[in-house]
Automatic annotation (TrEMBL):
Organism field: Aromia moschata
Source superkingdom: Eukaryota
Residues in 6-phosphogluconate dehydrogenase NADP-binding domain copies: 24-101
Gene Ontology CC: chromatin
GO BP, sorted A to Z: transcription elongation-coupled chromatin remodeling
Protein name: Uncharacterized protein
Domain 3-hydroxyisobutyrate dehydrogenase-like NAD-binding: 106-221
InterPro entries: 6-PGluconate_DH-like_C_sf, 6PGD_dom2, 6PGDH_NADP-bd, HIBADH-like_NADP-bd, HIBADH-related_NP60_sf, NAD(P)-bd_dom_sf
GO molecular function, one term: nucleosome binding
Family: Belongs to the HIBADH-related family. NP60 subfamily.
Pfam families in UniProt: NAD_binding_11 (PF14833), NAD_binding_2 (PF03446)
Length: 227
């Protein structure tokens, strides 16, 4: 509910782009790039369109490093003409941009990818916690991990943060990851689609947050899994 109110206020609040009755957006475009749920995106779209504007949701996949390098993946949906108009911006920030159709498809796709990352990170953290409990060097596990087909940039980078216990090097804050997990679960509730692993992983993130790890990288869930 908080996320919904926050985003709607950005649109129709006192300083919003459509906050006053006389506001007209003819010929203007609005690109929503915050991580929101599909229904909020659709509601914002209706407001923008009612004022004569064009709306595009644009979700990004990638880390802070990838943002700095301009190698994000941009997921969009909504007004295709606005997608075309924004190509120069998308090329500056990302290696590719997808247009996925009607409003809601980009936000849904982003949540699907986020829950996959969230579950994988919990598995990584629990594996390294078990290695620690067994007396096996986490550095040795990481070296072996990097030689297997399990290795990928995302998990390798997270494993390095866990081994170094460098959770203040924030690529994605734990509260943002947990927010996306919750939004994915909300979507699954609406569709009556069971998400057993996502639900369990979400509890791990919630517990880590309760331990005071807000503001730390999501890999800090390792500290929760080892106790």
């Amino acid at each position: 509910m908080y996320m919904y109110v926050f985003n709607i206020r950005n649109v129709i609040g006192n300083c919003g782009v459509a906050g006053r009755e006389e506001d007209v957006l003819d010929g203007k475009g609005y690109v929503e790039m915050t991580g929101i749920d599909p229904q909020t995106s659709k509601d914002i779209c209706e407001i923008i369109k009612s004022k004569g504007g064009r709306y595009l949701e644009a979700q990004v996949q990638g880390s802070k490093l990838e943002a700095d390098e301009g190698s994000l993946v941009v997921l969009t949906a909504g007004d295709k003409s606005l997608f075309v108009d924004c190509q120069s911006c998308f090329k500056a920030m990302g290696k590719t941009a997808f247009f996925l159709g009607d409003v809601g498809y980009a936000t849904k796709t982003n949540l699907i990818l986020q829950l996959m990352k969230g579950i994988a990170l919990v598995g990584l953290a629990e594996g390294l916690a078990l290695a620690d409990r067994c007396g096996i060097s986490s550095k040795d596990v990481l070296n072996i991990f990097n030689l297997t087909n399990l290795s990928c940039d995302y998990l390798t980078n997270k494993a390095k943060l866990i081994v170094q216990k460098d959770f203040k090097h924030v690529e994605q804050a734990i509260e943002h990851m947990q927010k996306d997990m919750k939004l994915a679960l909300d979507l699954s509730d609406h569709l009556k689609q069971p998400l057993l692993m996502t639900s369990t992983a979400n509890e791990v993130y919630k517990h880590a947050r309760r331990l005071g790890y807000d503001g730390h990288d999501a890999s800090c869930i390792y500290m929760r899994t080892r106790h």
